[in-house]
Amino acid sequence: MISLLQVQDLHVAYISGAGKVSPALEGVSFDVLPGETLGVLGESGSGKSTLALALVRLLPGNAEIQKGAIQFEGQDLLRARPRALERVRGARIGLVFQEPSLALHPTIRIGKQVSDVLAAHEAASRAARHQKTLQLLREVFPADASRIADSYPHQLSGGQQQRVLIAQAIACGPSLIIADEPTASLDPTTQQEILELFRMLREKFNLSLILITHNPPLLAGLADRVLVLYAGKVVEIGPTEQVLGSPQHPYTHALMQSVPPGLDEPAKDRKSRLRVIPGEAPNLAVLMNGCRFESRCTDRMEQCAEREPPAVAMSEVHAVSCFKYGE
Ligand SMILES: Nc1ncnc2c1ncn2[C@@H]1O[C@H](COP(=O)(O)OP(=O)(O)O)[C@@H](O)[C@H]1O
Ligand SMILES: [Mg+2]
Questions:
Q1: Which residue numbers in the chain have pLDDT < 50?
Q2: Which atom of ligand 1 is nearest to the CA of 62?
Q3: What phi and psi, each to the nearest 5 degrees, are found at residue 223?
């Protein structure tokens, strides 16, 4: 099958005012097939949001894409002109972020905010847009779409706000949705509901989905494949059952040992839980020769500090960057 999205050797760094270069992604490669859900898993600071923003060219001004290619529906987004990017962003690729309240305008009614997304990308009459807006809101609020359309964001719960953002993300019939920690600000029950909504919409509209999270259980029933990001590198990628069920990279292994089965807890508990893997991720501004996980790895060998482990194919669909395998 031909990939919908193909990312090759992507390098992104943040440049400080003093010109200091801090790499955030180094040589990230993967693809997403039509209709496929790819989970991106990694602890805080691993580069997940940088990846999401780079894919749609929405990185902040102090970020620099140093190298790579991002092929999406036949064009390289790293070389596309601004006009072409605008047609892709929000239309062919829908975006959903962690904090729905920040993404909605506080003083504009929900219906208008959804309708504005349509207006930005499609030439249609106001009446047609109004119809389409209600239809979209019904996808995510089957019972009370018109009441929601007339509401202001503050009248909605976090879960309802996230549903609005999802309606906006699917408004123009995208082929890909990128969701960056879409449930991290929600309580566990609402998280389940939002995940269920993604599952339903994905089937109904044959969407590909990149679902980004720090929380492995969230991917278990939803992702076809999982990419594990550690300190800006892909350390493991493969089918979800294999990566989560029998993780091969010591980092993935440690990550799976450290998470309780279940969805997100409130943010204050999250930090303490992530310290279950002893040590800290390396400072990428400091040049290093070896494996990024070396200092925290219980399986480390001499060569791990000396050079970087290449990706080793465990099977046609499962790759791991670790000296324990291959060679
Ligand atoms: N706007 C920014 N300016 C400078 N550094 C940033 C910025 N955003 C992220 N970073 C750095 O890039 C790295 C990756 O961050 P991020 O992509 O946000 O990770 P994640 O989403 O996995 O938590 C971190 O070291 C972070 O401090
Ligand atoms: Mg993030």
A1: 267-268, 270-275
A2: 3
A3: -85, 140
For residue 67, give both structure tokens.
């190298």
Ligand located closest to 44 CA:
1
Domain with residues 5-92+172-321, CATH architecture: 3-Layer(aba) Sandwich (3.40)
pLDDT digits (tens, 9 = 90+) for 281-327: 888 877 778 999 999 999 999 999 999 999 999 999 999 999 999 76
Tell me the residue ranges of DSSP E strands in 3-153.
5-15, 21-32, 37-41, 63-72, 75-76, 93-96
Q: Is residue 267 within a helix (H) or strand (E), and if so which, with residue range?
A: helix 267-274
Question: Are 24 and 65 in contact, with CB atoms under 8 Å apart?
Answer: no
Per-residue pLDDT, 263: 56
pLDDT of residue 327: 60
Q: Which pLDDT belongs to residue 258?
A: 81
pLDDT, position 272: 45
Q: What is the DSSP string of 190-202?
A: HHHHHHHHHHHHH
Q: Which residue CA neighbors atom 3 of ligand 1 most closely?
A: 14
Query: Which protein residues have their CB within 5 A of the ion that is ligand 2?
Result: 48-49
Q: Measure 45 CA to ligand 1 centroid, in angstroms.
A: 6
Q: How far is the CA of 324 from the centre of ligand 1 (A)?
A: 29
Residue type, 321: S
Give me ligand 1 centre to Cα 47, in Å.
6
Whole-prediction pTM: 0.94
CA distance 307 to 327: 14
Separation CA 159–CA 101 (nearest Å) = 10
| pLDDT value of residue 165 | 97
Q: Where are the domains of the chain?
A: 5-92+172-321
What φ, ψ does residue 185 adopt, rounded to 5°? -95, 10
